[in-house]
Design goal:
about 400 residues, mainly alpha, Growth Hormone, Chain: A
């Protein structure tokens, strides 16, 4: 008797060959270190402020210099197209380890900012090479699944990394936290150097496959726009895409505490649930996009993102707003995985360059809302901020609508 598969099996099934599994596992671990390094900073702002005697108004510069360094991503993007993905991945990991050590031994606030600037530079090198490696190793039809599994590291770092970092800081201080990140990064750098298959340097057979697959995909497109226009729209759309959920995440904790009396523990639970939902969106969204179409689903998830942000602003009760928050977290990650897969196919011969522009756009979007957000919060609080985020998501959908049509 044949055993029937559960109804959800098509949503989570991962079909990767053994070399692909090794590559995905290695890239997952490498991206996990960057994710932990990025996400543990904001929750520890009070600890940084006490250690360096800096007010909370200035302590946000820690994340500011990190985001600013992402603007340099287009400078580094072509590097992986020329020398290969793996060397650039290793260079990014090496810079991350160095930056963590700089932060661990920083004697003053300026030295700490220098360390965070170095971390941002490593991230700017690493991300385009990471996404490019995935695109080089996996055909477009399976790329969403691989992208989703690797990007799951970001959500997992929020669920597990932040509590672990808080425990280390409480027990041994900030220096121990950064020293731990440094040691783990060094170890994973060696693992990456030894185990990552040398498939991400776009060998000739990979280039031929890319050209053949890109031609086949182009034949199925409905009135495709020019590659240059597609890249410009992808850049601008990504700016608004990242700005949209920032409207919620930046001010969610303040809103829950001031308007609804949530304690720090309760706020942490809300963020943990949102991170778990985002994790589901990353993995399930990648698999679904491989089956139903990446370009279409990316735009559908953008519309869901806009609706969920508007729902948070207009919800009559807290429970309704929190449900919209959960939907937003899922839609954001599911759509982002689908769109990043589409972006890898806009210009296969210059993947590193295109993906570095997308990374730069993410930095621009985050910085833009960090500058605009305080004014929105002061005028209309959380409702106005999230409505602005909904508008940003709609603008992103309009900009990206013709991009990758048919992919």
């Amino acid at each position: 008797m044949t055993r029937r598969r559960p109804w959800y099996a098509p949503l989570i099934q991962v079909r990767l060959r053994t070399p692909g599994k090794v590559a995905v596992a290695t890239l997952f671990l490498a991206f996990l270190m960057f994710s932990i390094d990025s996400q543990v900073i904001s929750p520890l702002f009070p600890d940084f402020a006490r250690r360096y005697g800096v007010g909370l108004g200035r302590i946000v510069w820690i994340t500011g210099v990190f985001q600013l360094s992402l603007l340099l991503a287009p400078v580094f993007g072509p590097l992986s197209d020329r020398v290969g993905r793996k060397p650039v991945l290793l260079l990014g990991l090496g810079i991350l380890a160095l930056s963590a050590q700089l932060c661990a031994t920083a004697p003053n606030f300026k030295a700490l900012l220098l360390g965070r600037l170095a971390a941002g530079l490593g991230f700017a090198l690493f991300m385009p090479a990471l996404n490019g490696y995935i695109a080089d190793c996996f055909s477009y039809r399976r790329r969403g699944t691989a992208m989703g599994v690797v990007r799951a590291a970001w959500s997992i770092s929020g669920i597990l990394g932040i509590p672990a970092a808080a425990f280390i800081v409480e027990a041994a201080g900030l220096s121990m936290l950064f020293s731990t990140i440094c040691l783990l990064t060094v170890a994973i750098t060696f693992v990456t150097a030894l185990s990552l298959p040398p498939m991400g340097s776009t060998p000739q057979d990979g280039r031929a496959r890319d050209a053949r697959e890109h031609k086949e995909l182009a034949l199925g497109r409905d009135r495709p726009i020019s590659p240059r226009t597609a890249v410009i729209r992808a850049f601008l759309g990504s700016v608004f895409w990242i700005a949209a959920p920032s409207s919620s995440f930046f001010y969610l904790a303040a809103w829950l505490r001031t308007s609804h009396g949530f304690t720090t523990t309760m706020v942490g639970m809300v963020f943990a649930v949102a991170s778990a939902t985002a994790l589901a969106g990353t993995v399930v969204g990648g698999s679904i996009s491989d089956r139903l179409g990446k370009s279409l689903l990316a735009k559908v998830w953008l519309l869901v993102l806009a609706a969920s942000l508007a729902g948070q602003a207009l919800a009559p009760a807290l429970a309704s707003a929190l449900i919209c928050l959960v939907v937003m977290a899922f839609a954001w990650e599911a759509g982002l995985v689908a769109f990043m897969t589409v972006a890898t196919e806009l210009a296969p011969a210059k993947r590193g360059t295109v993906l570095s522009l997308i990374s730069c756009a993410h930095g621009v979007g985050s910085i833009a809302f960090s500058l605009l957000g305080p004014a929105l919060w002061a005028i209309g609080g959380y409702s106005l901020a999230t409505m602005a985020g909904a508008a940003a998501a709609l603008i992103a959908a309009l900009l990206l609508w013709p991009v990758g049509r048919g992919l």
